[in-house]
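user: can you give me the structure for this one chain? tokens are fine.
assistant: on it. calling the predictor now.
[tool input]
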Amino acid sequence: MNPNYMSNIVGAVTFATIGIVIFVVFFLILDWVTPYDLWKQLCEEKNQALAIVVGAATLGICIIIASAIH
């Protein structure tokens, strides 16, 4: 394998790991800020409105992270 390819792979894995860590921290903060338990609302009570809001926030933060890393 060409050494240049290896550096590209290492860079991609590094940035992907950083992005995932930032996303997990964001989700934990979102769970902490909300006045109720997100997992209980989403999984047990099937709150579709909350699922849409959390999904939109997730996509928004992922787009911001991807733009910042790229």
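assistant: here you go. Helices lie at 3-33, 38-44, 48-69. DSSP finds three helices and no strands in the chain.
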